[in-house]
Design a protein that fits this description.
The chain has 209 residues and is mainly beta. Helices cover 8% and strands 58% of the residues. The chain has an 11-stranded antiparallel sheet. The radius of gyration is 19 Å and the shape is globular. The protein starts with a helix and ends with a strand.
Length: 209
């Protein structure tokens, strides 16, 4: 990684990242138009990223101060903007850990979202994030034929990612319609262990009508 951290200016037309989780899941991220700039202890990265060829990409900017070799002083902030980002693959990976017998059905649908997320990379590698999301429609008939879709979804969110330990996300004032019914906004918290305990997770909801 040293050439990326210490070169003053690097441009990459395309980039492919293969992620392998402890559970055996594989995820591929496709990057494009990547620009890396370094000036002593200031670092800046910007690129477009997607999870499948032909999809609308998300646009990511990260700015950092300090030396990456000294995690106690290294600090970074980022901003992620996306429109019509396809969430089908991330949703499939998540549901495979919860409902492995039905999660393959998610492949049939393109679930797209828009929003923006602010990233805060703390010293010692913890990542905190916050932002807002909106989705027009999420089909649920892959669960059962008579389950209506969720539509007009809007929420703000906060979350964290601690490498080797856990990650989580809290949805605040989650608004959506279930079929023709408008559901009262809810708060939802999801957290999941990482590493060998990846099958351990918690889901909390403030109310169910």
């Amino acid at each position: 990684l040293e050439p990326f951290l210490f070169s003053r200016h690097i441009q990459l037309k395309s980039l492919t990242i293969n992620l392998h989780s402890f559970s055996g899941q594989k995820t591929q991220l496709l990057g494009s138009q990547m620009l890396i700039e370094n000036d002593h202890e200031f670092h800046r990265v910007q690129l477009s990223v997607s999870v499948a060829k032909g999809d609308s990409p998300a646009h990511l900017i990260i700015e950092a101060n300090g030396q990456p070799s000294d995690l106690n002083s290294f600090r970074a902030n980022g901003y992620l903007k996306f429109e019509n980002l396809n969430l089908s693959e991330p949703l499939k990976i998540l549901t495979q850990s919860l409902m492995p017998n039905v999660s393959n059905e998610v492949d049939q649908y393109a679930i797209k979202t828009g929003g923006e997320i602010w990233l805060d990379f703390r010293p010692s590698t913890q990542l905190d994030y916050k932002g807002k999301l909106s989705l027009s429609k999420v089909p649920l008939n892959w669960l059962a034929d008579d389950v209506p879709p969720v539509s007009d979804i809007k929420t703000s969110l906060t979350g964290w990612y601690m490498p080797g330990k856990d990650w989580g996300m809290q949805l605040h004032e989650l608004q959506f319609d279930l079929g023709s019914t408008t559901v009262e906004p809810i708060n939802l918290l999801y957290s999941q262990q990482l590493g060998s305990h990846w099958q351990e997770f918690d889901i909390s909801i403030n109310h169910v009508n």
